[in-house]
Amino acid sequence: MTGPAHARWPSRSFRWLWAASATSLLGAEIGELAIPLFALLSLEATPSELATVRVAQFAPFIILTLALGVVVDRLRRKRLLIAADLGRALLLIAIVAGALVAQVPIWTLIVAVFLIGGLNVLSQLADFSLLPAVVPPDRLTDANARLTSTQSAMSVAGSGVGGVIVQALTAPIALATNALTCLLSALFLTRVIANESPPTISTERVSPWVEARAGLAFLRRTRIVRDLALEAATWNFANEILLLGLTLHVVEHYTLGAAVLGGMLMASGLGAVLGALTSGRATRRFGYGRSLLVALLVGNTAPLALALTAVAPSTIALTVAAVALLLSGFGIGLAGAQAVTVRQLATPRELYGRVNAAYRFLSWGMIAIGAISAGFVVTTWGPAIAIVVGGVGTTLATVWIATSPVRRLRGLNDAETIG
Question: What span, in angstroms and rounded, lies between the C-alpha atoms of 311 and 352?
Answer without folding.
Answer: 45
